[in-house]
Each structure stands twice: as structure tokens, then as C-alpha cells.
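Note to self: keep these together.
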Amino acid sequence: MRAERGRRRPAVAAVLAAGLLVGGCSFSTSTPRASSSDTVAPGSPSALGSPSATASAADARPGVTPLEPLPAAVPAALAPYYGQRLAWQPCDEGFECTTFTVPLDYDHPAGGDLTLSAVRAPAVPAGSGTGAGSGRLGSLLLNPGGPGGSAVDYVEAVARTYDGGVRARYDLVGVDPRGVGRSAPVTCLGGERMDAYSAADITPDDQAEIDALVAADKEFAEGCRQRVGDRLGHLSTVETARDLDVLRALLGDEKLNYVGKSYGTFLGATYAGLFPTRTGRIVLDGAMDPSLDAITGNRTQAGGFETAWAAFAQDCAKREDCPLGRTEQQAGEQLTALFKAIDAQPLTTADGGRRLTEAQATTGVIQAMYADFLWPRLRTALADAKTGDGSGLLKLSDSYYERGSDGSYPNLMFANMAVNCLDLPAPFTGPGDVQQAVADFERTSPRFGRDMAWMALTCTYWPVKATGAAHTIRAAGAAPIVVVGTTRDPATPYAWAQSLAGQLESGRLLTYEGDGHTAYGRHDACVDGAVNRYLLGGEPPEQGKRCGA
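Structure:
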């Protein structure tokens, strides 16, 4: 994946039926960074110790300071935005849609507006789920991640799958963040150029290949500058969190109730840090750690994918149809050999004249790490690739990018990069820095480290300067905030959930021992029950509660 920050390929890019957005995370949402001394085993429940210990470690990092809350009173210059009236109109069956405006620049609200699009699934009159109870609880905002995932599409995809009790008492609401989906979307490249970008060699072997990768990254950045203009400097997570507060007020809710997945956890935690007294029932599933700089985040994310690969390889080795041998070690060796062969000679596919490059093969494997129900599909794709047919891996790669059958791309990747490059300073100043960091990345992730180090180069050439920096989030005075971490989550390593839960003054860590990206709404009754009881009754799970195998 061009992982979560850096080339931050949106750590997943598709809204799956169970409410799982394999979307992105956020480290550059390209990939994590760090030195080998910072490395932790993302799949290890005790990797960073207790939540409080991880909070202390985050505070001790040089340059990492807490996110300060905004003044409680709404500034007079923003009163017109908080005083709008939402005009809901029927859109898709069972849903209502609306738009509202926010300032492009909160520091200079007279400088222009953005129009944001929202959808809601009104509360149903009766429910049969966990603790259905009675009486409306207001709105529950949902965000699937990315950055770049459409919350409008997400709500429309998952509303009917939500617990009956939750559906009975909440309006489910999604708003496309600024720059995303239907909210002044960012665009950067056309379909053919995005095909070339996704195929670009991200394990360069010589200066010519390094130059080609740099050229591809510069073309992407320049395309964004030309098409987006001044808006490119106003797509940060802090600004999006302030947009959420405007919407909260327009919905008539005293406090924000919210479920965020993947990058949506960073957005939700940022809201809590800025507006702790307006924070209601917040669930952060597949948590990001805001205290990590871009290099550390991208490198540790690479470790998350390595952990997920090990789980896949162990499972594969037990199956008759495994194309990679009969041990985890054999699987790793054969995958490395396959990538090397594809690098030397891209594979033919059934998709016209397209060929599968090593970058696309890597992205295809990474896509399948997001959910274990994709593992059978990956086994078949790898078996076909070993016979010279790259079609299966190409389809997985296209799914990661949400590439349409007509060759078009949504704005997911464009928004992903735009947000990530604003939220943290670029991890590298040029190819030389990447070359020095590759060894640390490969020690963390022998399979994906080199790719993810080079993926993180795009923000180096970004046309606007980052406005954010690594920080901790205390959200002092906020209601309990439930942080859900999965022990073998590929895109948001479990250690990140431990760290975020420890930073938050009212954080409660709920652990799912299992595979895949995010846990709520997927298949575990223990996780779903604990989260639903909290959403409906306000009582968070006990600290340290564990679910899963």
C-alpha cells in the first residue's frame, strides 16, 4: 500500500458490506516510519505495555506536545455558519441528503466558503438489537477512514446493517469531509496517468528508476496544485474536525456522538481534543496514534502489514491450495521471489493490454491483508501469478485504488495524499533520505518495508507546506472514549490503539484478538455488544476488556 502516510495509499480503499472500510489510515496514510529502536511488534498485546505507559512514552518524545482545546464559545465571526438551517431532502430510498457551508479558512472566515454534503438515515421506530430501549439519542456520525473515504457512501452502504437498537435511537449521519466525495473534491490526475502512477516502480534499483519514481511523484503533486489551487492548503484534519462541530450544532445535538474507523479515529480524537466539553459517545476503531511523526508512523505500519502477512502465511501453509509452500518461511521466500520476478518481467493480464508490475502486485497483496475473507482470493491470485497470469493480483490492486472498470478513479487517493501531506511534515527531503531509511524499514518488514519507505516520498514534493505536527491528545473533561484495537490489524497496528487510549484522559481500550482492519460491525458478538451497549447506555466497557480468540 502506498501506505498510510507518505504515499499513503489509503490504507484501504473500499467500503465493505460489513461496515468495514478498508480505507486508509493515516501515515502519510502511506506508511509508518521510525528507527529500529522505536519498532514494536504490532501484533503483540504487550508490545507497549499499559495504555498509561504508552501515553508517557508519547509525551516524552521531543517536539510532541498536547493538542490544545479551542475556546468553548463560538466566535462571532463563525456565528453565521453555526446558525444555518439544514434543508433535508429525500435522496436514495430511506435516506435524506443536505448541504451546508463552512469557511475555507477558520482563521479568516471572510475569505470564502466550502459546501459540504451530508446524508442521514433517520432513526427507525423500533429496534430489536442490543438494549434497544426507547427515546431518541440524537445523531450518530460515522466516518469510514481514508483519509478520503466518503462518509456519505459509507452510511448508505452500512446503515441497514447496524444494530437494531442503535438504529432505533440514532439518526445515522455521514458527511463527506472537505476535499472528499461530494464536498469540493480534490482531483489530481486523469485515469491514464493514475494507471501509470499506480504501476510506477517503488523499489528502484538504480538512478534511472529513482528518477522515474521522483518524476511520478512530482507529476502527482503538480496535478493537484493545478486542479485544486488554494483549497489544497485547507484540507487538514483539524479543519475537518471543526466542520464536524458546525454540523453537530446544525443537527441540534448538544454533544457529538461518533463512530470512526481507521483514519476516522484520528478525526474523532482530534474533535475530542479541540472540543472536549462537546464530546459525547465516541468510538474509535482501528486507532491511529497522533503522537507519531511520519517516519515512525509509516515504518511501524509496515510492521503491521508484516504481522498480517505472517498470519496469512501460517493459514495458507495449512491449506491444500496454498501456492507458497508448507511453512511460513517458505511462503515469505516464495513471495519475495515472485515480486523479484515480476519486477524483472511484468505479467500479462486479462485486462486489455495492461501488465501487472511489482508495485501493483505488492498493492494487491496488501489489499488482501485488510480482511481475512480476502485470503482465499489472494491464494488463487498468487497461484495464477506463478503461472504468468497477473489478472487476480491486478484486480486486487485496482480494488485498493477503487479503479472503475472504465479506467476512472474516484478522488479517494487524491484526497488521501492532500490530507496526509498537510497533517504531518514530509518524512524525507529526497531520495537520499529514503535510501538511508530503507534498512530500518526492512528490519521492521522484510516483505513490505522497502516499498513503504519509497512510497513515503510523495509529500516531499507537495506544493503546500504542512500545517500539522505530531502531538498527543488528552481531551481532558471529555466523556468516556472507547478505543478499539485489533491485535493483528495490518493498517493500524495494535500498539497505536494502546497509545491513543493511554493519551486520552477518558480513554477505554477494547481489544479484539484477531485478524483484519477494524473490529466493530464485522463478526464478533463480544466487540459489537460492548460497543452497542456503550452507544445506547453510555457505559463503556471495562478497562482492558478483551474479545476474540
